[in-house]
Amino acid sequence: MAVLVLVAVLSIHGEARSALVDEESWREGRKELAAGQLTDAWDKFQKLLERYPEEPQLLQVMGLAALKRGERETALAHVRKAVALAPDDAEALTLLGWLDMEVAGDVETAITSYRKVTALKPDVPEAHNNLGVALKRKGELAEAVASFSRALELKPDFAQAASNRGWAYVDQGKWPAAGADFERSLALQPKDEAALYGLARVRKELRDYSGAQEALTRLSGQSGNFVYWLEWAVVGLVRYYWVFLLLVLGMFFYFRYKTRRRVKVDG
């Protein structure tokens, strides 16, 4: 359940000087893209692409626009070309890393892109968080924890990095450390679904069934996901299993006693 931070890194540097700066349709297209006017923005970008077929910034923004339009393969093609033309563009590399991992399913290539971003922007916490997510996806848990920790060193109130590190600790079976990170995340973002679910998981593993139910109650109250209610019920059964056990044993001995009395009376 680790979470990437894409948008935050897509604004980590200013726009380099290019011919697009003087294009009114470029400025308008980006405003329309930000406002969700995808068709109008896309039309403007396509016309610009006819004139500037090898402009990295245009290709990158067209990739983002295609992604918002649900055209993932088109997005991947545009962003790959943007990175080929500008291999040190941290924004394009960040977007390409996400697309490689989520669209192409190529985690290794995504890690390569994210490593390059952290080298280009070592003081950007989101870059280290994204690398950590990719490393966790690959199963490189120790490296993932190190990346999330670096993100938290740079930004101590980075709730998503804390939650992500918590899930990496879950995969390592380090339950107290995971619980501390989920609580840290929830102190910053009380309704973080991933952190709440993680906290419930940790408390259940530590046999704090009351605490697990409390976290699941909070989660169910803000989400319509029936799975959370089901897990709440399962934890409740585990929590009060001894009550059910006593009831079953009581019923067993009661019926055994009744049977013996009936045998004696009949005899």
List the helices and strands and how they pair.
Layout lengths: L23 H11 L3 H14 L4 H13 L3 H14 L4 H13 L4 H14 L4 H14 L2 H14 L4 H14 L2 H14 L4 H13 L3 H14 L3 H14 L1 H26 L1
Q: Given this structure, which CATH class of the domain at 9-155 is correct?
A: Mainly Alpha
By CATH, the architecture of the domain at 9-155 is named Alpha Horseshoe
Judging from the principal axes of the Cα atoms, what is the shape? elongated
Helix/strand/pairing class, anyone? mainly alpha
Query: How widely separated are the two ends?
Result: 67 Å
Rg, please?
27 Å
Helix % is over 70%
Name the helix and strand elements from N-terminus to C-terminus, one letter apiece.
HHHHHHHHHHHHHH
Structure annotation, total helices: 14
Which consecutive residue ranges, at least 5 long each, have pLDDT under 50?
11-15, 241-250
Average pLDDT, rounded to a whole number, is 84
Beta-strand fraction estimate: under 5%
So, the CATH homologous superfamily of the domain at 9-155? Answer: Tetratricopeptide repeat domain
